[in-house]
Design a protein that fits this description.
single chain; 471 residues; alpha+beta; Lipocalin; 2 domains; twelve-stranded antiparallel beta barrel; four-stranded antiparallel beta sheet; 7 helices; 28% helix
Amino acid sequence: MNLDPTRPRRVAAALFAAGLALPAAAAQPGAGTNAGTNAGTNAGATADNTPAESNGAALERLRASVARAEARLRHTRHELDRARAELGRQGALLDEAMRRLRAAGPGPTSAAQNQAAAPAADAPATDGAPPSPEQTAAPITETKPPERREARVLQTSPLQSVGGVLTPRGTLVIDPSLEYDYSADDQLSLNGFTILPGITFGQLLLARVRQSMVTPALTLRYGLTDRLELSARVPFVYAYQETVTQSILQQSGGGTTVGVLAPSAHGASIGDIQFGASYQFNAGGGGVPIVVGNLIYKTATGTSPFSVPVYTTADPNGGIISGIQKKVPTGTGFAALEPSITLLYPTAPGILFANLLYIHNFGRTVDVQDPGGGPAVAADAKPGDAVAATFGIGFALNDETTFTLSYQQEHVFGATFNHVAVKGSAYDFGTFNFGIGYQISKSTTINLGVGIGAGPNAPVAKVLVDIPIRF
């Protein structure tokens, strides 16, 4: 039963009014009964009707409040459904954008984050109102860790060497680098004749060539479009070479003479400048790898091996060291065109990659030095072309550090001299590569790459440090 809190006061007021009417009734005979009867009747009616009216009004107010709450709830549910639908649409757009950003490199990812975060930062705060679809969808535009790590993997040195990452449109990358190469080669020659196995008459020459080369270089890459990148590389080469020769002279009388010489040489000048372009054919996704085409033109701006002086027989000990270079060349002496194709398959948090390269060397007329001291002889020379295949995997250790492993196998075809094939000039070699990359800031990365030669014709080792900076 509901109690009206005002009922006692109204009953007391009615009794008080009835009490005032009693003296008047006593003073007027016959009037007391009517007055008492009327007062009692009126007081009873007031006391009985007022609680029912108050309870009905309260119930109506309560019903109206519940109706308003239900209306607000229906409106909130409607807004939530709209926000949920908008979130689904934004999620689908984000997945598509991330797929394209993985193909275009890490640059657009940062731009997309900034553009997506701007509306959320500028939106005014509202108290008590449900968030708008734009405000609700804004947080999901943050780059997911797998995509960010895949973008970082694409910036490591081994992948950059095979054309694995493209510069976003309008972005300039300045990439200073320092490379160290060490190679060793053993040569054996005989100037004489052999009458029986193990019995030799004449001069036996054993040469051990050790060469160290330091190459600081500056590489520029510019994104002409989202799928086309142009590049240029300007190296400066400092090389040091030591040739240890050991001459064993077998005389007909049975005597043996042994002589050891170690002439050294060095060279320092600009190397072969390179110009390149890379084009991304597709965006990948759906089980299809990203395909990138690369084209590099290598000039012959470095010092040619045919232009450096050599020791001749007229020099001291010329009979042993004739033909050895007095100065180390800093270039190959021949221009080359290097087309290649790269395949990239993201598998978060890593990337599988492969590259197929063909090197075409352009022949030309060169002046060949005469070890006997005579004038140089002009000849048409062409180094052998080469084909190389590289495959590997790169993966992210965390959001800042990446690690890459790869192997390259290369075959060099035989060279020609005066349009005649040079026998024994074809060879094969392989290189194991691994690289580590660390992101210093949003625009700067430092990479360390190491290559270890496999086979007698491969360089012993090389180390590359580069710091690409984006502008």
